Amino acid sequence: MASNKLLQLKSKACEASRFVSKHGTTYYKQLLEENKQHILDQEPATVEKSIELSRQLLYTRLASIRGRTESFWKRVDHVKGLWKNRADLKVEEAGTAALFGLDCFVWFCAGEIVGRGFTFTGYYPPLTLEETEQPPQTDASIER
Known about the structure:
By secondary structure, the chain is mostly helical. It has helices at 2-34, 47-84, 91-115, 129-133. The longest helix has 38 residues, at 47-84. The chain is extended and about 75 Å long.
């Protein structure tokens, strides 16, 4: 039974792969042609164009701050409402919230590990002034 479903899934995956390989390039070219005004390779890159794009990005981000803060506070109010009515909270909602919290914690830990230079135990101690100013040892300076 499971083998039959696996064969059907494999067959559909092969069919989808053939469809994409046959029609994918046509769709890709059509998509690029329809959106060529957004592609930067049309004209040579210049400092002026770079400055214009950075300004557009900056002011677009600045213009979106109000909407993002409103969205943030709506979400905070929603969480406050859920907390006030936690007796009515469904198991699925609680599980989703717990998984989201766990996800945030895992990404925090991953960031800490990367920030420590991929160590789990702690940060590397900084070198002292004496350690940085010592001349390198040569064979003659090593006592036998």
